[in-house]
Write a structure and sequence with these properties.
heterodimer; A: alpha/beta; 6-stranded mixed β-sheet; globular; B: mainly alpha; 8 helices
Chain lengths: 252, 211
């Protein structure tokens, strides 16, 4: 039984099919990378899991709770309380960080702990400081996001997501807004999390990285999963012609 | 000349009253109007849009006449001139403020809403703690413009017979065959707006700790 089960999920934007029947399972402690060309639907898939988009059909289960499932022509979403509970099981790190610019680094990390989880300020601050130390940012708790580099901002946003103690941490192209040097520092953080057996889904264009940290890789194209498997197998001997073409372009 | 200054100060007090009461009511009313303008309900949003178009598309001086004399011609009811001035100013300025608020709210990146949603904040908490503080910072320059205009617009209250600063100065000027009272009135407006723009500068600086 996986932590996340996705079955036959479809999603259309107007008439355009972005997800055309996606199914996969995510197991505890697993790191799953989703790769594929732009417009393949990988980010949309992540946004459906984190409830930023609604699916049009299919079924999604998170931690044995049904988030949404098809009933006839329509999709039935769970009640608000269940949806909120599910929401907190999944953390999301955005491509462009989306830190709150008017809040200090510390408050970015404590705000949801206090207002959503109902922790005391002292407790939330202690958790935040622990996470900042882990991210190598203990000096920056009083700084505002605009005074940090992109890599530092992304590390704060990872700490912000981790502060709610999610079961699964999702990354939506976490390094796409960063230059190569800063990319390395984020990849290292994710790699460290993988070592701690954090369950993660990483949508990424960093092929070498995906190959390095993943337990399993999914290759998506045009709203479908073309191929999935262990990274060594998928990268070295892709079974599908489409995967091969994509990987050749990337490793050139 | 000896009587001039007290006279002008009384006029100034009336102008300041119009100014303060207009702000007191139109700043919050603008938020209600902005909410209506952004409503998902098509009927509500188009009605509010028509209201905004009328308020911004016709002269304030005409609106004041309408607010004061309208009820008289329609129902034969007359009421206090000063009240009419406040109503006229409030509904006019609320329309402008609403559009400034709307612009401010819509300029906040969607990612701020999405991050808040994923972190589990309620809509109300997101709006009051994440969105509004950023909107306030962004709209300060536009609000400053509007408030400075309001100081000068108070002079229009005289069209329905409220003796504010400019009216008082004009009468004194006619009585004394001198432009001095008008020049002094001009100086008064200038000083009041000096205070207004200083206040907005201060506010802008205070929120300068992030961008």
């Amino acid at each position: 039984m996986g932590i996340i089960t996705v079955e036959n999920v479809t999603k259309n934007f107007d008439e355009l099919g972005v997800l055309k029947g996606i199914s996969f399972t995510l197991n505890e402690g697993e790191v799953l990378s989703i790769i594929g060309p732009s417009g393949s639907g990988k980010s949309t898939l992540l946004r459906c899991l984190t409830q930023l988009e609604r699916i049009d059909s299919g079924r999604i289960e998170v931690c044995s709770m049904t988030m949404a499932k098809s009933e006839g022509e329509t999709v039935q979403y769970a009640d608000a309380r269940t949806l909120k509970e599910i929401r907190l099981k999944l953390g999301l790190v955005f491509q462009n960080f989306n830190l709150f610019p008017h809040m200090s680094v510390l408050r970015n990390i404590t705000e949801a702990q206090i207002n959503v989880l109902g922790k005391s300020k002292a407790e939330a601050t202690a958790t935040a400081r622990l996470l900042l130390a882990k991210m190598g940012l203990e000096e920056k708790e009083g700084a505002y996001p605009c005074h940090l580099s992109g890599g530092q901002q992304q590390r704060v946003s990872i700490a912000r997501a981790l502060a709610l103690n999610p079961t699964v941490l999702c990354f939506d192209e976490p390094t796409s807004a960063l230059d190569p040097e800063l990319t390395v520092e984020i990849l290292k953080v994710i790699k460290d999390l993988a070592k701690e057996k954090m369950t993660m889904i990483v949508v990424t264009h960093e092929m070498a990285f995906a190959r390095d940290i993943s337990d399993r890789v999914i290759f998506m194209d045009e709203g479908l999963i073309v191929e999935e498997g262990a990274p060594e197998r998928l990268f070295n001997e892709p079974a599908m012609e489409r995967t091969r073409r994509f990987l050749t372009r990337y490793t050139q | 000349m000896r009587n001039l200054l007290p006279l002008l100060l009384v006029g100034t007090l009336t102008s300041l009253k119009i100014f303060a009461l207009t702000l007191l009511f139109s700043v919050p009313l603008g938020a209600v109007v902005a909410r209506g303008r952004m409503s998902g309900n098509r009927l509500v949003s188009s009605l509010v849009n028509i209201y905004i178009m009328i308020m911004r598309g016709t002269p304030l001086i005409l609106q004041l006449l309408f607010v004061y004399f309208g009820p008289y011609y329609l129902f034969g009811a007359s009421y206090d001139r000063f009240t009419a001035v406040i109503i006229g100013f409030v509904i006019n300025y609320a329309a402008y403020f609403a559009e400034i608020y709307r612009g401010g709210i819509q300029s906040i990146p969607i990612g701020q809403w999405e991050a808040s949603l994923v972190l589990g904040f309620s809509k109300a908490h997101t709006f009051t703690h994440i969105i509004v503080p950023q909107v306030v910072k962004r709209i300060i320059p536009a609000m400053g413009n509007e408030v400075i205009t309001l100081v000068k617009d108070t002079a229009l209250a005289q069209t329905i017979g409220v003796a504010e600063l400019f009216r008082v100065a004009q009468s004194a000027s006619a009585r004394q065959f001198s432009t001095t009272p008008i020049v002094i009135a001009g100086l008064f407006y200038f000083i009041m707006n000096g205070v207004v723009s200083r206040s907005f500068d201060w506010l802008e600086k205070k929120l300068d700790y992030y961008h």
